[in-house]
Design a protein that fits this description.
Blueprint lengths: L1 H22 L16 H8 L5 E5 L10 H17 L3 E5 L6 H6 L5 E7 L2 E7 L2 E6 L2 E6 L9 H10 L1 H13 L5 E6 L10 H7 L4 E6 L7 H8 L4 E5 L7 H12 L3 E5 L3 E2 L2 H7 L1 E6 L5 H7 L1 E3 L2 E5 L2 E11 L2 E15 L14 E2 L6 E3 L5 E7 L4 E5 L2 E4 L18 E11 L17 E10 L9 E2 L2 E2 L14 H12 L4 H6 L10 H6 L1 H31 L1
Parallel strand pairs: 1-2, 7-8, 7-9, 9-10, 10-23
Antiparallel strand pairs: 1-5, 3-4, 5-6, 11-12, 12-21, 13-18, 14-20, 15-16, 16-17, 19-22, 22-23, 24-25
Helix pairs in contact: 2-6, 8-9
């Protein structure tokens, strides 16, 4: 009887244990990079979801074994999200039956090259998920688009991007856009088609509106009051001189807490005339904002940076028959910037491509200055005015001539800014007038084209994509991080830059030692089991004989 009672008690304990195990989910993260530990940003986003949110993942079916890893990591991540909020529902779907429907919805498949036993094959796979909440649907790309040299690196980038991808989608689909951004117009800024890619991305997070400073002429007080309603202003490559009324409006906007992103070309140098005639004159552009920036602690120099680390331009290099042959040449006036600091804005982003950038000097005035972008050690400033000719491509650069060191081309300013009109006659009177701001921040980049996307067949391409080489630069991510930081929306920046260290097998070594490891994995267990049986039988006979 006691024996049966013990079994009954053990059965009850097992049942209770299973019920508790199903009710509570807990995973212990023992990894060095804490890849399974969710950030506070993700937790905050999940806490605001009060209705069912449905995730459909199209990573089901027959696809390369390498991407099983992505499937497993995605499933585990969604289980973690569901454990924090029961409103999260997810399921994995085989996309083959819905391929046309998915493509029409904008979920383009990826072509993957896989190698098995020395044979290379190509597979179509949908690395997408959709997130539905209330009446909104958001597409989530699970495959990283960053520039990588191998498929394994792309897979690693995809896995470490999972938390950001889903947190970003949850954030966009469940929150109202409250912060507002003014895109300044009226001083020859870039046309809409050249900023379309970045503004389209920015509109997923914030409310955007064009704002012209022309109205300052008629009613400056009202213009300043209207501008104050915006949390951030973006000044994208102005080409026309700012009047004193316009400068004072921007100055007082900053003094009253407005954030600003300055993308300024201090030199007139354009590729169009260079391509048409073979040379162009680079000369100083008078925007009348030198005193404004000087009061904030920075100075834009009248020079152009040449950098041995640069992107390319495509030129005709001859003819074969009746066909013109084109070739890509390094163009040192288009520096490729790899940031060396660990600031959240620049951590883990692709190289940023600039065009005809000037150097920036920082001044001592009590404002904290963080260098975001700088040229390589093999760079030098060129004074202007200057004739720039395509024939410079044929001249082999001498590294010894590029010994001026790194030059600042992007800087973050944080602190209490002094007004440029603190000890001067103000252009107009305003009740909002202040001589010093509270804690505020701004970013200055010495290249307006950092925000400009290329055009193909009349349509804007993705910002940072070079249509000639198909090279993807990090301009969009950098600018998005910059805006997030200026608007104190830095949680998503940290997720975007999260790093996970995955270990991959050496494919060449796997193929070379394939037979050896097959022999070890198949026959070794059988041999060990047989040896154990022989020894066990021998000891048994010896003991009981």
């Amino acid at each position: 009887m006691k024996k049966f009672s013990k079994i009954a008690i053990l059965g009850v304990i097992l049942i209770v244990f299973n019920v508790l195990a199903n009710s509570f989910y807990k995973r212990f993260d023992l990894t060095n990079d804490k890849r399974y530990t969710l950030s506070n940003t993700t937790r905050d986003i999940l806490s605001k979801i009060d209705q069912p949110i449905t995730v459909k993942v199209y990573l089901e079916g027959d696809f390369p074994s390498e991407f099983k890893r992505l499937q497993i990591e995605t499933r585990q991540h969604l289980e973690e999200l569901k454990a924090l909020n029961k409103n999260v529902k997810f399921r994995f779907i085989d996309p083959l039956d819905k391929a046309e429907e998915l493509i029409e919805a904008g979920l383009q498949p990826s072509r993957l090259s896989t190698q098995e036993a020395g044979n290379v094959s190509e597979t179509i796979i949908f690395t997408w998920a959709t997130v539905a909440y209330k009446d909104r649907v958001e597409n989530v790309s699970l495959l990283a688009t960053q520039t990588t040299t191998t498929q394994e690196q792309q897979l690693q980038g995809s896995i470490q991007n999972l938390e950001y991808a889903f947190a970003d989608a949850f954030h966009k689909i469940s929150s109202e856009r409250k912060q507002t951004i003014a895109i300044l117009k009226g001083n020859g800024e870039l046309d809409d088609i050249y900023v379309a890619s970045f503004l389209r991305k920015l509109s997923e997070y914030y409310r955007l509106a064009p704002f012209t400073l022309d109205s300052v002429k008629n009613n400056p007080q009202k213009t300043l009051a209207s501008l104050q309603k915006y949390d951030l202003s973006i000044i994208a490559k102005p080409t026309e001189r700012f009047s004193e009324d316009e400068k004072f409006t921007l100055d007082q906007y900053i003094m009253n807490g407005g954030k600003s992103l300055w993308l300024v070309d201090n030199i007139v140098a354009e590729m169009d005339s260079l391509m048409n005639t073979g040379e162009t004159l680079a000369y100083n552009r008078d925007l009348n904002i030198t005193d404004l920036l000087f009061s904030y602690g920075v100075r834009l120099n009248y020079d152009l940076i040449k950098d041995m680390y640069s992107s390319t331009i495509r030129l005709a290099a001859g003819n074969v028959g009746d066909q013109t042959q084109f070739q890509d040449f390094l163009w040192q006036y288009h520096p490729v910037i790899n940031s060396k600091n660990s600031h959240p804005i620049t951590t883990n982003i692709e190289s940023v491509n600039l065009k005809f950038a000037s150097s920036i000097d920082t001044l001592k005035n009590g404002i904290d200055k963080t260098i975001l972008l700088q040229s390589s050690p093999l760079s030098k400033p060129q004074g202007t005015p200057k004739i720039i000719a395509l024939e410079e491509i044929s001249k082999k650069p001498v590294p010894a001539d590029y010994n001026n060191g790194e030059k600042i081309v992007g800087v973050l300013l944080e602190g209490e800014f002094n007004s440029a009109y603190a000890n001067r006659v103000q252009p107009f009177k305003s009740d909002l007038s202040k001589n010093k701001s509270d804690l505020n921040k701004m970013i200055l980049i010495s290249d307006g084209d950092i925000i400009a996307n290329q055009i193909h067949q009349g349509q804007p391409l993705e910002l940072g994509l070079d249509k000639w080489t198909n090279q993807q630069y990090g301009n969009k991510t950098f600018l998005l991080n910059a805006v997030n930081y200026l608007l104190d929306d830095s949680g998503l920046i940290k997720l975007r830059s999260k790093t996970i260290d995955l270990q991959f097998l050496d494919k060449q070594k796997v193929i070379k030692n394939r037979s050896k490891w097959q022999f070890i994995n198949v026959l070794a267990p059988i041999i060990l089991l047989g040896l154990f049986g022989v020894i066990f039988s021998f000891l048994r006979k010896r003991r009981y004989s």
